[in-house]
Amino acid sequence: MLFSCTPEEERNSGNDLREPVVTGGVVSVSEKTVTLYGFCNDAVSGGNAMGILLSRESSPSLENGQKASSRELDKDNKFSVSFSQLAPGTQYYYAAYLNYGGTYKYGAVKTFITKDYVASVQTLEAQGIGETKVKLTGDLKVESHDALSVQRYIILGEGSQTESQLMALQKASRYNCDQGFSISLNNLKPNTLYSYLAYAQVEGKVFSGEVKTFTTTSVNVQVTTLDATSVTETTASLLANVSSQSSTLDLSNTYFYYGTNQGQLSSSVKATSSGNGQRYANLKDLTPNTTYFYQVRTTVAGESFNGEIRSFTTSDYSVVFSPVVTGITEKRATISGTITVESKESPGSTAYSLYYSDSQSGAEGLLGTKEVKLSCPNGSFTQALSDLKPDTEYHYLFRATVNGRYRYVSAVNSFRTLAPKVSVVTKDAERDSDSKICLRGNVQVESKESLSVDCGFLYLNAENHVTNQDSEQTILRKLTDSGVKLTAYRNSDGSFSYTFNFLDKGVYYYIAFAKVEGQLSYGALKSFDAERIESNMPVDLGLSVKWASSNLAATDTNPLGSYYGWGELEIKNSYYWDSYKYAAQNANGAYYITDYCDADGRYLLDSGDDSAKQILGGSWRMPTSAEWQELIKNCVWKIVTEKGISGYRVSSNKTGNSIFLPYAGAFSKTKLEQKGTKGLYWCSDKPYPNADAYASVLVIEGESISVTKLYRYFGLQIRPVCK
Prior knowledge:
The strands form 15 sheets. Strands 3, 4, 6, 7 and 8 form a 5-stranded antiparallel β-sheet that branches. Strands 11, 12, 14, 15 and 16 form a 5-stranded antiparallel β-sheet that branches. Strands 19, 20, 23, 24 and 25 form a 5-stranded antiparallel β-sheet that branches. The protein has 6 domains: 107 residues, Immunoglobulin-like (Sandwich), CATH 2.60.40; 98 residues, Immunoglobulin-like (Sandwich), CATH 2.60.40; 93 residues, Immunoglobulin-like (Sandwich), CATH 2.60.40.10; 98 residues, Immunoglobulins (Immunoglobulin-like); 109 residues, Immunoglobulins (Immunoglobulin-like); 185 residues, no CATH class.
């Protein structure tokens, strides 16, 4: 290191103090600082700037150096200045200067060398070596009078590396240790050799320690898959034990893998630590009644550790359907009951549907028909069905959709709607007042419902369709298969009719039908000859009732009509007490009357026992004795013979209309008596209330016309009346 002379020496060293400024020597010098001095002539010092120029160049100047000024001189005309932030161990050049009236004057150039520091770095042994962790430390020692700029580093590389390889940072990482010459790392590979060194940069100069090595320990993790717990229909809790002998090992990267295919556990959920090495995960949105496989897997420092594969089966919802069918009619029924969902968890939103059909297509097709959404508050429901068909078996089932997506279907149940009681009567064909042929029928429907009823007739011409060998069943089949359909209007009392405007000659077969809610019913098969049929039309005689133009059941082939016991509807082979409907024998063999007698107090026939009412329908009925008396008193009676039959022609004084009452006689037992000489016609009442064995009767014989009484078992004629 170079130093200048003392001030006294400086004066005697040949410097000319008459010069404006003289370069002095070094007062003190360290690694980064220096104090220099100079002299200034008295004559020029006042009010002038003076100082030192410092540079690493051998010729310091204002352009290449740094300047330090001073305006104070001591008694020896000496001034001094200091410089800092110099480079240690470096040669500098300096010269004194004076700004003399704007002109710089310089002293001689002198030199000095800053002091140099002493530094050393030591790489210390690795500490706290684990599977993935280590603490690396270095030691830096610096001898210096000044504070120096220092950066500390540790370089770490995998495998065995030299200093030059580590410093090249090709397969190594550098860690800044400004907060202390050590660093803790926790992302290393287990069971792996590492090389490292510590180095420092002091004022930009590198000092490195020796290369050292360490090997991380091996990972030892125990992983056990435990049985699932809290298994419900859609949830389960998975458990596992995951532990290690190392307290520093990070086991947080642990997952449960699960799925319904043991060979492909495609779903995963992160495990949560519950302490003591146990991990758990809660699964949701599972499928009921399904087997799931699961396995715990943990990854530590890139290495995987797996537990065994276990399984569990979710519970199934138990849906109990308890229906009952009530209020069954021909078209309606009510299905009510309860639907209960039994589960280990809340079933969530649940929807219910009722499916029903008149054909059983199977539960898998939900019967293939109508669906009704059910409202089930508190699990109970009541559903009325109102679009059913009579006499039809219906099948029904329920479906419950639990938790918005799981479907459960009940067994198929059934019920049958009521069949309406349908009675169809085919009546004899008649001629009306215009000599047109009229077909009449009647349908009675007993039902709890208002049912749609279509009625009419089927007919066909015997000449074109029927042979002599055809049975009644064959004719019926031909009628239903190819008969002409005639639609008629049904009156409120059930009667209906159809009148032909024109009909070819010949024999015709016909049958009355009724179609009730689409189901057909038929009356009896009947026939008529279009040329020979007689009329049974009402004749207005100006009285309280209209009288039929012919006897009950009269036709062209049977102009007298049929014979009936009083209150009976059937035509019989024998007419006596032993075959009479309302007669019975006591223990002594004597006959007594069972109906319309003193015991029941009835003396007028009910409509159900009125032959005219039941056969003709409508307002037709048997006349009372009073109506026969009205006919006798208010009309003209004349004995005539018409078409070879004798009887009375009864003519009205008011309307000019008339009716013919033939001498038809009467049946007693099996014999028809007094035909052609006497006429006997039933009344609908008895002569007096306790006349049990008798009924009122009109008798015409010769000039005699009277209403009297007769035993009820006789077979007599009936002449209907109507309003």
